[in-house]
Design brief:
- By secondary structure, the protein is of the alpha+beta class.
- It is about 25% helix and about 25% strand.
- It is globular.
- The relative contact order is 0.16.
- Bound molecules: biotin.
- Biotin binds next to helix 2, strand 3, strand 6 and strand 7.
């Protein structure tokens, strides 16, 4: 991808784009340990040889996919880079913000494909996974501020015609939906603007995020099971609450869930790749 407009934009303090890398998140985790790193720092790659998904999953992406990691910093750096001072207690919600931003970008472009969010941060088009997010907060050496790494993989120009069958059956790519290539650089910039705006809103009015997110909830009203470690929570999905927790209506009452793998009941797990 020609990343020149991205590098020139005032949205990132540092940008690097690799032809090939093991994993942009692994690189980002290394960089995040540098005391003087300029943030927001964007690391992208045309090809990952060891892309990681959530849990122990791998992330497959063919040529034309958009795979990148954004390193974000605590308040001082947010302000320096014209991002809001998002309190650390709100960091887990930034991955929901990032997913919502992609959903909004796609909604502008392909509303008929019904962009949706599967909690916590998977993005779906036409009922299939198009993007996933891996959020990590690495342990830091003494004196280095805590940083957040948001790793995002989105199937843009990587037609799934060449994907392994198990991925093809659950995932989709934007180019297959619009019937041709899309401008990845422009979409990434659009996403960053949305992400910035939504992160500002999160800093100002933390509880408003849920309202935007709920409008896109893939499983609202459906019977679901959340596997959280050894625990299985089954019931009807009620969307998310103001703090971003998944709400499941069970015979014992409403459960607030902060982690786990969500599946639609009476069907296979609705994961595009990993989830
Ligand atoms: C998931 O849905 O399981 C999350 C997938 C995250 C994949 C992205 S691709 C860019 C970044 N680098 C990685 O190794 N993983 C994330």
């Amino acid at each position: 991808m020609n990343s020149s407009d991205i590098a020139r934009s005032a949205l990132f303090a540092h940008v690097e784009w690799h032809d090939e890398i093991d994993s942009t998140n692994d690189r980002a985790l290394q960089y995040a340990r540098q005391p003087d790193l300029a943030t927001p720092c964007l690391i992208g790659a045309e090809r990952q040889t060891a892309g990681r998904g959530r849990g122990n999953n791998r992330w497959w992406s063919g040529p034309g996919a958009l795979t990148y990691s954004l390193i974000l910093d605590p308040p001082e750096n947010f302000r320096r880079a014209h991002l809001p001072a998002v309190d650390q207690s709100l960091w887990p919600r930034l991955s929901l913000v990032a997913a919502l931003a992609w959903c909004e970008v796609l909604d502008q472009l392909v509303p008929a494909a019904q962009p949706r969010l599967k909690w916590p941060n998977d993005v779906y088009l036409s009922g299939r996974k198009v993007a996933g997010i891996l959020a990590e907060v690495p342990p830091q050496p003494a004196g280095v501020p805590r940083r957040l790494v948001l790793g995002i993989g989105i199937n843009l120009n990587n037609s799934l015609a060449s994907a392994p069958p198990e991925i093809r059956s659950n995932a989709t790519a934007l180019c297959d939906i619009v019937g041709g290539p899309v401008d990845r650089q422009e979409l990434l910039l659009n996403w960053m603007v949305r992400f910035h705006d939504n992160a500002c809103a999160l800093a100002d009015r933390p509880n408003d995020l849920a309202e935007g997110w709920r409008a896109y909830c893939l499983l609202a009203g459906e019977l679901v099971t959340l596997q959280a470690g050894e625990r299985s929570i089954a019931g009807r999905c009620l969307g998310i609450d103001d703090e971003g927790a998944l709400l499941i209506d069970t015979p014992e009452g409403t459960e607030r869930c902060f982690g786990g793998v969500l599946v639609r009941r009476q069907s296979l797990p609705i994961t595009g790749q990993s989830s």
